[in-house]
Design brief:
The protein is α/β, with parallel strands linked by helices and 362 residues long. Helix content is 41%, strand content 13%. The protein has a domain at 3-75 and 112-261 and 336-361: TIM Barrel (Alpha-Beta Barrel), CATH 3.20.20.70.
Length: 362
């Protein structure tokens, strides 16, 4: 059995297409549509309460009887960042004045939360086919509980060392996240602000394939069938696609974000710590231009979002996304508006066409 067949069997899916878990953007409808089309739908749970996660999982099950994945962050809690947040709010003061906003008196709802015992208890009750982790792996005892219950464990790595580490800690397949990927970098073995040595998808994937014995899922800059075909040529067993799914009606994407995605080019995005405190790839806007993308004054992840929340809300109300995290990978210009089911099927079918065309040209 080759690694792709092994992965399809492990995940109990028909097509080697995985909808990337995108916090704030993935919805039960998106997950179910991808699953019903034969791929793997993924619900990002880092911004969900246990109650919301449970409700969304029930909605997925009501719309699909296929495999789906719940995805979590595994960052360390930041501790007391009140002083950092006050200092950051002072730097934002001119913007508050411009938009008639006030600094927050309390953290906003939906703050990003690491996987813990409470999440684990709820996941065991929900019993999804797969659980996925970003920023490393959970505590060994939590991994054991999941695997003992028959839940498949996946994790992300951004370097060969990180991919090897998550496999050592129990991951049964690894997502090799190239530099081109949208959203948060899954960095966990080096400083999360040290991005100069991060690796592109083309260089990363084959090195990870050579370094681990589990199936490798390629992620980063893959938005059409050519990208999926390239991932397989590099030795990947499946492709994880994120930004292209933001163009579907099932995704939870604001009009401002959708407009920015449609206008994006290959050089429209940067990695920035401004919105959460950890590097994440998004479309350049006024806030990034003004403050610099990797600003050392941004509070520790995930609390950089706290002082920004009222400003973001006020700016969006006035019709601008200049203070919003417009997450996107470098391949946004390759994406097209279509349904999640059509995208999933087209990505898989298109791979065969691309491979056949390549074979003819040789």
């Amino acid at each position: 059995m080759n690694q792709t067949d092994k992965l399809l069997d492990l995940l109990d899916i028909e097509l080697p297409i995985i909808q990337a878990p995108m916090a704030g953007c993935s919805t039960p409808e998106l997950v179910a549509a991808v699953a019903n089309a034969g791929g793997l739908g993924s619900l990002a749970c880092a911004m969900h309460s246990v109650e919301q996660m449970t409700k969304d999982a029930a909605r997925i099950r009501a719309a699909s009887n296929r495999s789906f994945m719940l995805s979590f962050f595994t960052h360390k809690p930041p501790g007391d960042t009140a002083a950092q947040e006050r200092a950051w709010a002072q730097k934002l003061a001119p913007y508050y004045k411009e938009f008639g906003a006030e600094p927050p008196s309390a953290p906003p709802a939906g703050a990003r939360r690491p996987f813990d015992e409470e999440y684990c208890d709820a996941v065991l009750k929900i019993a999804p086919k797969i659980a996925h982790f970003h920023f490393g792996m959970p505590k060994p005892e939590l991994v054991k509980r999941l695997k003992d219950a028959g839940i498949v464990v996946l994790a992300t790595g951004t370097t060969v060392a990180e991919c090897k580490r998550v496999v050592e800690l129990g991951a049964e397949a690894v997502v090799a996240q190239g530099f081109e990927a949208g959203g948060h970098r899954g960095i966990f073995l080096s400083k999360d602000t040290d991005i100069a040595n991060q690796v592109g998808t083309m260089a990363l994937v084959p090195q990870v394939v050579d370094a681990v014995k589990v199936p490798v899922i390629a992620a980063g800059g893959i938005a059409d069938a050519r990208g999926v075909a390239a991932a397989f040529a590099l030795g990947a067993s499946a492709a994880s696609v994120g930004t292209a799914y933001l163009f579907t009606p099932e995704a939870n994407v604001s009009k401002l974000h959708r407009a920015a995605l449609k206008a994006a080019h290959d050089d429209s995005t940067v990695l920035t710590t401004l919105f959460t405190g950890r590097p994440a790839r998004g479309i350049v806007n006024r806030f990034i231009r003004d403050m610099g993308p990797m600003n050392p004054d941004a509070p520790t992840f995930p609390n950089a979002s706290n002082p920004l929340a009222p400003l973001r809300a006020a700016a969006e109300k006035s019709g601008t996304g200049d203070f919003s995290p417009l997450w996107s990978g470098q391949g946004a210009a390759l994406a097209r508006e279509t349904t999640a089911a059509e995208l999933t099927k087209n990505l898989a079918a298109g791979v065969r066409e691309v491979v056949a065309a390549m074979a003819k040209a040789v």
